[in-house]
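User: Structure tokens for both sequences below?

Assistant:
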Amino acid sequence: MFMSKYSPYMLRNSVADSAPARSPLAMAVGVLVLCFAFNFLGRGVGDTYMVFLLPLETEFGWHRSQMTAIYSALMIVSGLAAPLGGMVFDRWGPRILYAGGLGLLGVGYFLAGKVDALWQLALCIGVLGGLGIAAIGMVPAAALISRWFERRLSTAIGLAYAGFGCGSLLLVPLAQALIDAHGWRYAYQAIGAALLVLLPVAVAMPWTTMRAGLPSRPPAAPRPSRNRGPVRAALRRRTFWLLVQVMFFTAVGMYLIIVQSVAYLVDVGFAPLQAAGAFGAAGALSVLGVSSAGWLADRFGHRRAATVSFAGTFLGIALLFAMSFRASVWLLSAYVLLFGICQGARGPLIAGLSARLFRGPGQATVYGVIFACMSVGSGIGALLSGALHDLTGGYRAGFVVAMVCVLLAATPFWTSDAILPGARPAE
């Protein structure tokens, strides 16, 4: 899976660790496991906010819209900070980025256990938490993994992406258990303290060796002019905007659905627990879809893998639309299966394509900009979801717009070969 014919290679002296050389296989696996673990922590800790809503509302009497705005802020901050994380990675390396991100996340969540005002919670969770999640998320992970995997790059990135779903599945119930046993303040402080305990471990990792990688050929570095950095050079390329199109419209379409999916299922006749269970089951299935998306792309091609994932999402939304006329357990089960497996499947595909097309200095920054555009799409989708519901008095308009967005997101894979493997890297 990792780059073959590595035996003749030696790590560059300018970036090599002082520690003895490590097995390329062990290092490749280690990088993948580490990226999975940080994605696990970042997404899992961020999603624990769901179980803090009711305790916070009970203690402070804050409006639900005020508290959900904090989660929106976390999403937007983490997305818009992604390019900054890429710049830090490219300039100062992963050690500073990961350690800084883990520190910000740990401090933010520890202090959240001491808040007495809404603005304090927004600062701790929305700002510090968002910055920390961006720093330990998929932007640096994609840059690291691309240095160790070539033929199976999309498969490796897909496995790292699976950390998102696993983190939500395990850390959210754990946070709920801490709240039930000791209260929300203790739970926040326990999460923050655990993250800070991991900080020395993160600092001690062999980041220099991990960053160096073992390429089978020198990476094709972009050649920006003296007046153009990597991002400016990328902005002039059609391939960059095609990747942005895929991620932006995917995010808009998905968050038009996800934000109100539980409320919708309750409105059409399902019990609240049944609706929540369907949401959780879809999230669990996303782990399977995300982890296999890269493998499918490597085996059958990015165009086919993307087409299958978009088709599943489109059909899942169509099933939701059908349930507005007549709800049934069979339709719900089919929706959970299709929408759940395909949820998040585009992430590994685009991360892998970005790593190939913009290889070299500035790679992490370029992907960070793409990731930020996706986050803006998520925010727009969430806002449209509520606006269309209030405007039309129902959900069907939102479903139709979501399906149109899915088609727009899938279009680049069929109208252009520029973003497919074999395209010329950025120059």
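Moving on to the next sequence.
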Amino acid sequence: MLVDAHAHLDAYSDRAEVVARAKAAGLVHVVAVGQWREGAGMAGAQDAIALAKEDRSFFSATAGIHPHDAARATEADFVELRRMCADPDVAAVGECGLDYHYDRSPRDLQRSVFVRQIRLAKELGKPLVVHTREADVETAQILRAELGPDGGLIHCFTSDWAAAQRYLALGMHLSFSGVLTFRNAGAVRDAAGRAPLDRILVETDCPFLAPVPHRGKRNEPAYVALTAAELARLRALPADELAKATTENARRALRLPGGSP
């Protein structure tokens, strides 16, 4: 019984088959991340919202502007983003944040767009989905100054225990992806083993970051079971206990339907 807390479902031409495999693998919910796309504006978010409206028991949506796109999003896009995030089928604002690895948008614009979305989440009373890469200290500083009481999660957490402690101290949850299974991810595994059980989630970030043994291939929600199995191994927990905990955490952190499994 698992929740994929972060999936880019607009990436699949064979989405019906992908969803069928997810259900066969035991998933009970998928969070469809909707974000601004160059040439398509907020169409990706609209697609995620449509999925959530089609089947609220299995899908929830988010809407946000990724730091890669901070320099290209227009004021009209922000108006549309606010309208979308106010929709009751949008569970959270994001993904948004800072990416100092690729620096596809100037850092000052990344920061300002991130802050705008944190404030939007606070205004609407919704949690936040945060992307951060090589920017943990500044991401935590901004969250400390701006984050509202509804909290949120650090999606695809790929940092160390020191960074994890900063986010946990702010009330954030940590969501672990297939990176957890990579051979060179020792620091991530260390953090995953130490974080409180009631603050961890699992995700795919599909179609990216497929876990071992599928690394380098297209990822999909069904593979979240492999990340969950690695997380259970790290914490010396039975798989069903880990699944129950991460599912409860996802439902609480993102206010997903279904209550406790």
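User: Anything stand out in the second?

Assistant: The beta strands are 2-7, 27-35, 59-64, 90-99, 128-133, 152-154, 173-176, 200-202.
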